[in-house]
Amino acid sequence: MIIGVPKEIKNHEYRVGLSPAAVREFKSYDHSVLVEENAGAGIGFSNQDYIDAGAEIIGSASEIFAKAEMIIKVKEPQAEECKMLREGQILYTYLHLAPDPQQTQLLVESGASCIAYETVSDNFGALPLLAPMSEVAGRMSIQAGAHYLEKAQGGNGTLLGGVPGVAPGKVLIIGGGVVGTNAAKMAIGLGADVTILDRSLPRLRQLDDIFSGQLRTVFSTADAIEYYASEADLVIGAVLIPGAAAPKLLTKDHIAKMKPGAVVVDVAIDQGGCFETATPTTHQSPVYVVDDVVHYCVANMPGGVARTSTLALNNATLPFGLAIANKGLKQALLDDKHLLNGLNVHQGKITYQAVYDALKNQLDLEYCAAETALDSIV
Ligand SMILES: NC(=O)C1=CN([C@@H]2O[C@H](COP(=O)(O)OP(=O)(O)OC[C@H]3O[C@@H](n4cnc5c(N)ncnc54)[C@H](O)[C@@H]3O)[C@@H](O)[C@H]2O)C=CC1
Ligand SMILES: CC(=O)C(=O)O
Ligand SMILES: [Mg+2]
């Protein structure tokens, strides 16, 4: 198969769909890999590194999109990229369609088969291609929060760990999955006072076991969110309903009742955000203020530590990418129900129920179950 790896074009996004090591794995199965010039240059992967791994360096994204049978990326395609996709082509990347009608419309129009990393599943009920970036973003959320709590950054001047004789800062984490757990590790490491909320009692039990006494687990209700947010210096939004738009759990009223100079980090912003006042920001301009509360809502947080993130992402995406390249799309999806769960758009139809449900009132969409949609591939 011909694999194409364009340079990412989202604001300050230096991750790359394939590392040189991953290119070498594709080459070992005799696939062709086309990598856009300087695609990895921002994180120390030179064109020569890619050539040494067996890739061909291509001068423009348009040539890559024209030649490749499968495009491997990191972030959701931007409008100009969507317009270069074609029927029969495979797109393998993060999509986050539920909050993004524009991208969804363009992918439907392209006719391409689009696999979303964030809805590929595993036998443990987890999301193995989202997990590595959630680990990164969860850890970063506390770093970012600690930074913006500084007075010069607009924060209330709290040091999360406190010092002997002064109480630590209070961190509230809403959602105790991968992002929430990694945020908790960092916050506990700094010595903060940590409360974590989740709707899942089994998950709260696991967190209680993992962190035995180092944090407070609380069942997530509107009351709990209101109470703990009003006390918090830093709130992390980390909920997910796979494929769906995030529920707005921290409302405008909650924000208005928070301490002036508190910081909120909505990691779930890529699924539309779980804070009512959240709107996506970029690494170039990460924060804004509502009701004296600093909001950090960067939709591609792992792009900030792009080298670590590229390596972590490639570890997870490689086996599925190889399966598609080696078997062809139809057989790879038929053989693996978890990869099939990644199919969000196929030949103009939406093939993931939660995406269809989120957008059916905004767009004229057709839904077709993923397994049925495959019948149209010969
Ligand atoms: N902004 C960024 O750069 C990045 C964003 N993310 C996003 O972070 C979000 C969280 O991802 P993960 O931790 O991997 O998901 P996860 O599935 O591991 O965890 C989500 C947790 O939310 C809980 N939850 C669901 N509804 C809830 C509610 N009403 N109240 C409290 N908890 C609730 C679930 O029980 C689950 O434990 C996702 O939207 C993901 O796409 C992930 C990586 C990077
Ligand atoms: C998951 C995601 O949105 C990211 O890694 O940028
Ligand atoms: Mg206030």
Radius of gyration: 21 Å
Helix/strand structural class: alpha/beta
Overall residue-averaged pLDDT value: 97
What ligands are attached or bound here? 1,4-dihydronicotinamide adenine dinucleotide, pyruvic acid, magnesium ion
The span between the termini is: 16 Å
Care to count the β-strands?
A: 15
Describe the structure.
By secondary structure, the chain is of the alpha/beta class. The protein folds into two domains: 2-111 and 307-376, 3-Layer(aba) Sandwich (Rossmann fold), CATH 3.40.50; 131-299, Rossmann fold (3-Layer(aba) Sandwich). The protein has helices at residues 20-28, 47-53, 61-67, 79-82, 101-110, 131-148, 178-190, 201-211, 222-231, 252-256, 306-327, 329-335, 337-340, 353-359, 370-373; strands spanning 2-5, 32-36, 56-58, 70-72, 90-93, 113-116, 170-174, 193-198, 216-219, 234-237, 263-266, 287-290, 293-296, 343-346, 349-350. The strands form two sheets. The chain has an eight-stranded mixed sheet with strand order 3-2-1-4-5-6-14-15, with helices on both faces. Strands 9-8-7-10-11-13-12 form a seven-stranded mixed sheet, with helices on both faces. Strand 4, helix 4 (79-82) and strand 5 (90-93) form a beta-alpha-beta unit. The longest helix has 22 residues, at 306-327. The radius of gyration is 21 Å and the shape is globular. The structure holds 1,4-dihydronicotinamide adenine dinucleotide (NAI), pyruvic acid (PYR) and magnesium ion. 1,4-dihydronicotinamide adenine dinucleotide (NAI) is lined by residues 118, 130, 133-134, 137, 174-180, 197-200, 203, 220, 238-241, 246-247, 249, 267-271, 299-302. Residues 149-297 form the Alanine dehydrogenase/pyridine nucleotide transhydrogenase NAD(H)-binding domain. This is Alanine dehydrogenase. It is an enzyme of class 1 (oxidoreductase). Keywords: NAD, Oxidoreductase. Its EC number is 1.4.1.1.
